[in-house]
Write a structure and sequence with these properties.
Blueprint: H1 2-21, E1 23-24, E2 36-47, E3 52-67, E4 71-87, E5 91-95, H2 103-117, E6 120-125, E7 130-134, E8 160-161, E9 165-167, E10 171-172, E11 178-188, E12 193-202, E13 208-218, E14 225-236, E15 239-249
Antiparallel strand pairs: 1-8, 2-3, 2-15, 3-4, 4-5, 4-6, 6-7, 9-11, 10-11, 11-12, 12-13, 13-14, 14-15
């Protein structure tokens, strides 16, 4: 009996080793024409001369329209946007699906309505790196393109094993801040591959002014993001901004 138990334990040990050494070649491969609908929640606290609390909810619909060996073209629509802004002096509530009935909400409507009414065209390669984004009639103030990295995690060209790490291409977001993100493949869960991220924000002088950490869950077949969660903090120009972003597939 002891012999059989020893063999059983040894087989489990060897299986665990083989699983840990198994490598994955991530290649983003969504289904052409199938829309992927997401809900994104962004919460931000701004501490400074005037404290601001801001909650944003955004529905996203991403439809791959063209797939080639090297690239994927996606049409992105944003059918609903909600925004709640709280300061010591006022509260502003905006909902794109409800007619604005106060002056501040109407001002937001003018700025944000193009986001709802237009279609964004996103081009990425098979490694998930966004190469181009065209969003006609939408200003950078209305839509921060750096938010695209929330659903598009970039993968290395080579195969990777559990525990391997790699850097995403550096990007600049709002305020001109450079983001450097390190990714680590944690393992395969029931929901998909888990990738943890940690990174820093740099100003124009290359000085670190903030940090970000979080994780992604990537579909085990399409290697497209199913969900993500991140928390970040930045200090610059006398302000401290803390924020959290969550993304989840809702279809």
């Amino acid at each position: 009996m002891i012999k059989y138990i020893a063999v059983f334990v040894l087989s489990i040990f060897l299986f665990s080793i083989s699983q840990a050494q198994e490598k994955v070649h991530f290649r983003v491969n969504p289904e052409k024409g199938k829309s992927l609908n997401y809900e994104m929640i962004i919460k931000s606290d701004i501490e400074g001369d005037e404290d601001v609390i801001m909650d944003i909810g955004l529905l996203m619909s991403l439809t791959p329209t063209s797939l080639s060996d090297s690239s994927i073209i996606i049409e992105a629509k944003y059918p609903k946007l909600t925004m709640d802004i709280h300061t010591a002096m006022m509260t502003i509530n905006y909902n794109s699906s409800i007619a604005s009935n106060d002056e501040m909400s109407q001002m937001l409507e003018v700025e944000l309505r193009p986001l709802i009414d237009n279609i964004e065209t996103i081009t990425m390669n098979r490694n998930g790196v966004i190469k181009d984004s065209q969003f006609p009639n939408v200003t950078e103030q209305a839509f921060d393109k750096s938010n695209l990295k929330t659903f598009a995690i970039s993968f290395p060209e080579e195969e990777i094993a559990i525990g391997d790490s790699w850097f995403s291409p550096s990007t600049k977001g709002q305020f001109g801040l450079l983001t450097k993100i390190n990714n680590t493949l944690i393992g395969l869960t029931d929901d998909g591959y888990r990738v943890d991220i940690s990174g820093i924000y740099l100003d124009d002088n290359g000085e670190e002014i903030g940090k970000i950490e979080g994780h992604y869950i990537v579909d085990r077949n399409t290697h497209f993001t199913k969900s993500s969660s991140s928390n970040g903090s930045i200090e610059f120009d006398g302000q401290k901004i803390t924020s959290s972003i969550t993304l989840r597939l809702i279809n």
